[in-house]
């Protein structure tokens, strides 16, 4: 069975990126997935084949090649899963049904997260930070698990705070899918957001502003966290997910709160816990 796709490899990758975006995948995930498919396409071309005329046999040969190259089991599984997502995007999910992989035990690699003592250090750094905006960002990423791209899109109206009762929630809107999810805020998070917003006397709708009084950009947040706290946003997101899984929160609830469109993505945290890697 084969599937012919019109257009260049770039056209195919662009279509795949749009498909992933509609599924609610983050910008970083889309970039990673497209990179995997681009590498697969380059390998096909180097072997006289083309991703625009893909076959089940081509996929099997590539998996075999990766095993010969002694790629780790976890890496091969990630590549296989990405290819599987790609063939679903072209309405040929069955193309990977008979692809055989190594019989070795699957190596579940736990996403990086902050251990309890590292969280304590992070919060100590936040306590010493004079930028109320930076502190609010750290607490929001750590205690809501939102993606940095989502954080940058927040408007002030998406942040519902009741300082008197010390409760609140964030509304994460997905414009592509036309839905939203609501994440409850911790008491500490309510305090930090309230302290930051109390300093705002502008009319800008964005929740977080750059030093130039414009909506903050993802790269600005990433740079700030790396330079001031020595951490990356995804680590804070993974820490949030791990914490919920450790507490026994149902995976479907964790998936909803974290915005995972597929509960199997959330399951990796549970698997890591079961395998003693966290």
From TrEMBL:
Keywords for this entry? Cell cycle, Cell division, Chromosome partition, Cytoplasm, DNA integration, DNA recombination, DNA-binding
Where in or outside the cell is it found? Cytoplasm
| Residue stretches spanning the membrane | none
Q: Does the entry feature the keyword ATP-binding, yes or no? A: no
Q: List, for all copies, the residue spans of the domain called Core-binding (CB).
A: 7-91
Determine if Cell division is one of this entry's keywords: yes
Identification of the protein by name: Tyrosine-type recombinase/integrase
Question: Which residues does the UniProt record annotate as the domain Tyr recombinase?
Answer: 109-278
Entry-linked SUPFAM superfamilies: DNA breaking-rejoining enzymes
One Pfam family in the UniProt entry: Phage_int_SAM_4
